[in-house]
Amino acid sequence: MIKQLLLATALTSVAACDAYAGEALTRFDVAEDHTRFVFADKPVHESGMPAHGNPFVTQGYIYPAGTLAGNIDGVLEDGSPAFPDKVLGSWTCDGWFVGEGGDAKSGVWLVSRQIMQFDTGDVMITQGTELADVGVTNTRPITGATGDYARFDDVMQQTLIGFTSHFGVNATFEIPQGDAHFYAN
């Protein structure tokens, strides 16, 4: 009887961990570290913002979904994470400004590759366009992944939450479970 009770408790604990892990695998927030955003000297708009064709690279922190709700700053002025105990990994993004680039108020403003490196060692890569519209969801293909993320072979949705007080990007990401396809293991 005691063995059965211990086994039932262990199985319940494993199921709870799997449910949490499933949530962590499919939804998260990203806070851009404004101190790591770099773009080329040219081309730029009169405003000083990058213009069409300007390449860039930037990095940031991955947080649990909802951490940045309400457009809370996820990065401090010195570039360190605002919530170090919640950091799930790092985010690196490179690409080119397109259209109206840094002056865009709406529509596609970037073509980029994003690399999510999770503290577990797992990696997910997505490529595609990004929208300048706050609160509008944009679908991006998942182009590569390792570990637990390798089971996803479809798309990810990115929504711009807004800009921090240091002009870093806050975004939320989700892999839609209803539409996602999985590689057979």
In angstroms, what is the radius of gyration?
19 Å
Write down the secondary-structure element order. Answer: HEEEEEEEEE
- What structural class is derived from the secondary structure elements? mainly beta
Number of helical segments with 4 or more residues: 1
**How many DSSP-defined strands?**
9
Low-confidence segments, given as residue ranges, are 1-24, 179-185
Write the layout of secondary structure elements.
Elements: H1 2-26, E1 27-32, E2 38-39, E3 55-64, E4 89-97, E5 108-118, E6 123-131, E7 137-145, E8 155-163, E9 169-174
Antiparallel strand pairs: 1-3, 1-9, 2-3, 3-4, 4-5, 5-6, 6-7, 7-8, 8-9
Task: Give an overview of the whole structure.
There is one protein chain. This protein is globular. It has one helix and nine strands, in the order H-E-E-E-E-E-E-E-E-E. The relative contact order is 0.17. Strand 6 and strand 7 form a beta hairpin. The longest helix has 25 residues. By secondary structure, the chain is mainly beta. An eight-stranded antiparallel beta barrel has the order 1-3-4-5-6-7-8-9.
